[in-house]
Design goal:
The structure is a single chain. By secondary structure, this protein is mainly α. The chain has one domain (27-115). It has six helices and no strands. The chain has helices at 2-25, 30-39, 41-61, 66-69, 82-95, 104-115. Helix 2 crosses helix 3, helix 3 (41-61) packs across helix 5 (82-95) and helix 5 (82-95) packs across helix 6 (104-115). It is globular, with a radius of gyration of 19 Å. The relative contact order is 0.16.
């Protein structure tokens, strides 16, 4: 039984290592996100909304300064739609080509924070 457990552990290690290397190599930067947003609406929508949700939830979980990282719903509005998130990020990427070398998730947070600052 011990042989099977150790064999399974070794196999799992060999299977996990290539996946981790692949994921690290595929990190998105602003340039990549802008290209995807101009050619693949569903990818753009999925990335932006996923990043927005993750950033918002993560900032609360880890006690980050909310005003620096998160955005707020404007007064009198019922909320910010996912399509509005995407439109804001797309405009920000087009308006700031000097920042496209930065990680895409940082640019998503920056774009939404600038468009919907907390007061």
């Amino acid at each position: 039984m011990a042989i099977y457990k150790s064999t399974a552990a070794v196999l799992a290690a060999f299977l996990i290592v290539p996946v981790q290397n692949t994921l690290a190599a595929e990190r998105l930067f602003g340039t990549n996100l802008l290209e995807h947003c101009e050619t693949d609406d569903s990818f753009c929508f999925g990335f932006v909304t996923g990043a927005a949700i993750g950033i918002h939830v993560g900032s609360g979980m880890y006690g980050m300064k909310i005003r620096d990282v998160v955005w707020c719903v404007p007064e009198g509005a019922d909320g910010i739609s996912a399509s509005q998130h995407v439109a804001v990020v797309q405009k920000y990427l087009r308006d700031h080509p000097e920042k496209l070398h930065r990680p895409a998730e940082e640019l998503v947070a920056e774009a939404l924070n600038q468009a919907f600052p907390c007061r």
